[in-house]
């Protein structure tokens, strides 16, 4: 157990097939505590499959998962969330037709008891959502505003703030910068840094190295279901990492780019 104290997540020899298609082939993947890992790879590399297994959406055909020092068989997304694994999806994080405060507590609504009945604690939802929204730097007039009127960056920031509010140990961001303006991208990246500084580990999924480079501590590259290798950011330019992703060249050892290639 002692050797796992520095690791929040360890996935060992993970394999997954869909019929004749082998989506993952004996993949090892880990995340240290207070670390941002950039999970890179082209379309079809296996990124989504690996993360869906970690989130309980899919079950591996082979392999083991350890989280926070405990071996887990994660059977559903609810089990994953109960363990402290929160995922912010690119398009499905918030419900447009619901207000900000309802989105904040979606699936975890606080209630209060009045006589024999329990009702939504709307006052607490408004107060807490206003505080969280303010903490992530979003200026809204009223937590009753509908999410549909928010910008993409505001939506992502609220999703991240919601995850932190519910004490996420691991935050998984699925292409969080896609379709955002340059200013919104900078704001979201700052929120990611703040999350890590607050003690939450982050998996930053992207096929674009430049999106992840500013915040990532270490890259893990997948290619056609295999783990292509790991690269420590160091002083590594994103062009070098992008070349590995594009060419599929295997990284034999953990590459420290503070040493010139």
- Counted up, domains total 1
Query: How would you name the CATH homologous superfamily?
Result: P-loop containing nucleotide triphosphate hydrolases
Helicity level? 25-40%
State which percent range the strand residues make up: 25-35%
User: How many alpha or pi helices?
Assistant: 8
SSE series? EEEHEEHEHEEHHEHEHEEHE
The outline comes out as globular
CATH A-level architecture: 3-Layer(aba) Sandwich
Q: What is the terminal separation in angstroms?
A: 36 Å
Main sheet overview: 7 strands, mixed
| Overall number of strands | 13
Features:
8 helices; 13 strands; single chain; Rossmann fold; seven-stranded mixed β-sheet; 261 residues; four-stranded antiparallel β-sheet; globular; alpha/beta
SSE arrangement:
Elements: E1 7-18, E2 21-32, E3 36-40, H1 47-54, E4 62-67, E5 70-72, H2 77-83, E6 85-88, H3 100-104, E7 111-114, E8 117-120, H4 122-135, H5 152-165, E9 170-174, H6 182-197, E10 201-206, H7 209-212, E11 218-223, E12 226-232, H8 238-247, E13 255-256
Parallel strand pairs: 3-10, 3-11, 6-9, 9-10, 12-13
Antiparallel strand pairs: 1-2, 1-4, 4-5, 7-8, 11-12
Helix pairs in contact: 4-5, 5-6
Q: What's this, in brief?
A:
This protein has 261 residues and is an alpha/beta fold.
Mind explaining what this structure looks like?
The chain has 261 residues and is α/β, with parallel strands linked by helices. The protein has one domain: P-loop containing nucleotide triphosphate hydrolases (Rossmann fold). Helix content is 30%, strand content 29%. It has eight helices and 13 strands. It has helices at residues 47-54, 77-83, 100-104, 122-135, 152-165, 182-197, 209-212, 238-247; strands spanning 7-18, 21-32, 36-40, 62-67, 70-72, 85-88, 111-114, 117-120, 170-174, 201-206, 218-223, 226-232, 255-256. A seven-stranded mixed β-sheet has the order 6-9-10-3-11-12-13, sandwiched between helices. A four-stranded antiparallel β-sheet has the order 2-1-4-5, with helices on one face. The mean pLDDT is 87.
